[in-house]
Fold this sequence. Notes:
The complex is a heterodimer.
Chain A: H1 2-21, E1 27-33, H2 39-49, E2 55-59, E3 65-71, H3 77-86, E4 94-95, H4 98-102, H5 143-148, H6 155-169, H7 173-189, H8 197-219, H9 223-242, E5 250-255, H10 258-261, E6 264-268, E7 287-292
Helix pairs in contact in A: 2-3, 6-7, 7-8, 8-9
Chain B: H1 2-24, E1 27-39, E2 46-51, E3 57-63, E4 67-74, E5 83-85, E6 108-115, E7 120-125, E8 137-143, E9 160-168, H2 173-181, H3 186-191, H4 197-202, H5 206-214, E10 229-232, E11 237-240, E12 242-243, E13 246-247, E14 253-260, E15 267-271, E16 276-281, E17 284-291, E18 293-296, E19 301-307, E20 313-321, E21 327-333, E22 336-338, H6 348-358, H7 385-388, H8 419-422, E23 447-457, E24 462-465, E25 476-478, E26 482-490, E27 496-500, E28 505-507, E29 517-518, E30 520-523, E31 528-535, E32 539-545, H9 548-552, E33 556-561, H10 572-582, E34 587-595, E35 598-606, E36 610-618, E37 626-634, E38 642-652, E39 661-662, E40 668-669, E41 673-685, E42 689-696, E43 701-711, E44 716-723, E45 728-737, E46 740-747, E47 751-759
Parallel strand pairs in B: 1-4, 3-8, 9-14, 11-21, 20-22, 23-26, 25-33
Antiparallel strand pairs in B: 1-2, 4-6, 5-7, 7-8, 9-10, 12-13, 14-19, 15-18, 15-20, 16-17, 16-19, 20-21, 23-24, 26-31, 27-30, 27-32, 28-29, 28-31, 32-33, 34-35, 34-47, 35-36, 36-37, 37-38, 38-41, 39-40, 41-42, 42-43, 43-44, 44-45, 45-46, 46-47
Keywords (chain B): Copper, Metal-binding, Oxidoreductase
Protein name (chain B): CopA family copper-resistance protein
Domain Plastocyanin-like (chain B): 36-145, 224-325, 449-563
Amino acid sequence: MRLISLLGxxxxxxxSTQHTHAQIKNAKTATVKxxxxxxxxxxxxxxEGKDRQFAKVDWNQTTKLAVVTYDSSKTSADEVLKRxxxxxxxxxxxxxxxxxxxxxxxxxQYERIxxxxxxxxxxxxxxxxxxxxxxxxxxxxxxSTKSADEKTAFAQLTNPYFALKDALVKTDAVxxxxxxEAFQAAIKAVDMNKLSHDEHTVWMKVMDKLAxxxxxxxxxxxxAKQRVAFASLSTTLYELLKVSKVDGPIYYQHCxxxxxxxxxxxxxxENAVKNPFFGVQMISCGSxxxxxx
Amino acid sequence: xxxRKKSNILTVVLLLMTQLTVLxxxxxxxxxxxxxxxxxxxGKSKRxxxxxxxxxxxxxxxxxxxxxxIVVHNELKESTSLHWHGxxxxxxxxxxxxxxxxxxxxxxTYTYRFPIIQHGTHWYHSHSGLQEQIxxxxxxxxxxxxxxxxxxxxxxDLPTIPxxxxxxxxxxxxxxQRMLHTANDWAAIKKGATxxxxxxxxxxxxxxxxxxxxxxxxxxxVSDVYYDKVLMNGAHSTDLKxxxxxxxxxxxxxxxxISNGGASSYFWLRYAGGxxxxxxxxxxxxxxxxxxxxxxxxxxxxxxxxxxxxxGTAYEFMATTEDRTQSASYFVxxxxxxxxxxxxxxxxxxxxxxxxxxxxxxxxLNDMGMKMSLNQMDMNVVMYPEITGDGKxxxxxxxxxGMDHGQMKMEEDPNRYNANALGDIVTLNYAMLESPQAxxxxxxxxxxxxxxxxxxxxxxxxxxxxxxxxxxxxxxxVKKGEVLRITIYNNSMMRHxxxxxxxxxxxxxxxxxxxxxxxxxxxxxxxxxxxxxxANEEGDWxxxxxxxxxxxxxxxxxxxxxxxxxxxxxxxxxxxxxxxxESNMTHFMAQNDFATNGNDGQAMFQNARWQxxxxxxxxxxxxxxxxVETHLGRYFGKMQWFMPFVGFDYRYRRMGEDExxxxxxxxxxxxDSRKALSLxxxxxxPMLVNFQxxxxxxxxxxxxxMREDIPIARRIRGDFMVNSDLEYMAGLNYVITKNMAFRTHxxxxxxxxxxLSLNY
Lengths: 293, 760
């Protein structure tokens, strides 16, 4: 009996020493903020961060702080954080690729406060979840873009337009709606004092129509209806850009099959055809009919 | 009188001085000290070659109009050379040992001197042996003069960084070359690309694997060598926070002048901050084109412009090897690092299936009526999950059905290999390159048409043009002033970046008079491309595949423009012989199984066509016997499935009284000790089974079927042998390292054995 109780004492002691033996050698720790929202995320972050006996991560959901312990002779805190970011979680050092973030379960998509708000159209990936919370990542025609685009009066219109087009290429109704809203904001921001005579004439003619079509896309969550509005929006915008100076070539492209063979046009910055009317189904269907310079 | 003389002298002095200054500002001299060094890029200290103490070699910058003077101090224990890739220069400065100069001997100095008559992004590298693989590559930047008519505001005045890509392997490159020639698949094991039967069954591709072996193909891959690291300017990851001391900020554009100095790797180039604008290729301006990604072939150069979209963020610019096992990055900008996702793993069995469909039984490729050229149709897209889905059925995202054009069958879709038609991203191809200026050649120059078919096989790693390696061909004579129009068809299963020395050629890509100028054209399997150039500079110009191991295997030609008297090479014929010899080196391999029931092994010397090999089976007692077979044979055909040989067999074995072996033809062999000469041939049957037929001088006939290296699982290889002497053998290997395997086998003569198999 005594022996057994002694054993009972010894075994946990042994186990605990083994536990300390299994600990990380040359251990260094770093405390880093990693963004995530649900308890389920804790498992993912800690699993992604772990590297055999060389690194482990302990993440606290409330504080968002992670304690990264790593063997400094084998790896680094950056390597651990990079893996976590590639799994979709922004942290102080690395921003997750957008495609990794989008692949997280809807409930796990946290607010990306580290990612700077987009100022121009070079990045088309848009935050999916936050459109209900005020669209902070959607393109806004800010003062800085305006000053940069003085030579082309309508550049602030084309940027959200191309983002909208790209969303339709991907058949993404949510992003398309968000970009159409940015486009509406851009219409309001056009400074008519800076327009040339020709630009002004056409602008007065098309302004309302552009706003209506954009509103049609924003309101509608059905991508088929969005595309009908987009077809109309594109032709109208083309009329406007024809009389205006554009920044770099813009390609006016034609899809012969949309709307039961009636066809439709769209504008693109690339000569390579990416059809926004059918998405992946017929992505390269269509041709460039005119190049605006 | 006095006055006159003085003024005369003054004019002369003035004249001299102006001339001097004109000359003086032109010559730009660089001293390069080439030394052995030890580096540790991937966990082990290994030999490399550093120039001026650095890898890559220093970036050399000149301006059009300068005269380059580059002094090479060879402090190696072996000879070296430097080739100026993409540069127009007198032939004697081109830097190909045995073709344009003698090799630069150890402890000697050599001066290259040539006028710079062009601009653009180029690079330079050793053209001696495999030195390029272990450090001898560097950027060579030729700036435009500011008053150049082609100076492009917004491009040529951007902050610019030269970037040279390369790979590192901990193996000695000579060993890699040897392993390639013996079809050692250690690289595939390292990459997880063995494509064994077990893996095939797991993915439901058993039939694909069988068909592949039926067509006598080894596992297919997009690259042959496993690298431990890839590097951009010698580093795995670099932070580019400022250019010329100016910190980078949002809205800034940066021009990267990228050269692929890798010995055998193609790289995908991608950017986390949006589109990539391609502004030049192979040192020649192109009309800017925006893409999401591009592939840079071995030895190509691309100038790309990237934009920093936001403040406080550094965007990853990533180069990933075509096989997607390794990558290196530049982070452009200041602040938190925006990553880009790694490229997903290749779907190898889809590639194998595609290859099966394309390959005829005789090893020829069949493009099934698709006229393929200019990298537009990339057969490899079937392996790209990001374009063709992750192996499951492609989802149809759009909700509206009933569109008749959506129902086209995949097999009939003319775009089924067109990445830009299939995916929602834009990948650069050659058809998108356009020169800003007309590049037409003089109309009155005579045109000469040449055709090359690129040929080769993986199993013996012989690469050739028209099934002839350099050592089997003479120089191709060309008249100065002729236009050479060369059509190249790739009938091999690997892609080849074909490089021409000394000239830029026009790549006929549908852009008419504005066809782009290049000096490397990457040709994928089954593609046909046409190039043309004016041969207006005399000399011997190398024309070769730039994959280092293909070049060393003999995939080369020489264009001899007129009869050039090269002061470096008084005896050109002899030098050419040496060049031919270096491109068809003899390789040695050996292997022995130290087993409980005896020693089995073989040793072989081989080059592109010939093979001298010995196989032995040595028992531990007289009863089991000792047996050595030696064959000297020559391979025929581009697939090299047929090898006639002469042989000599020696066998000693003590048998019991009246015990005689009989073969299935009833021929008996009575001698315990037998020496026999033989004639025979070996032929590779479908399923990669070697059939060997032999007749000995004493009339005895032997037929044998044998298969080695059956890829059962990732590390498990099976083999068997059966012959008309009623001998048989079956074995299993478990591959432990590249030189070692655990082996168990059963042999009809020697019984069951286990052992350790070593190979060199």
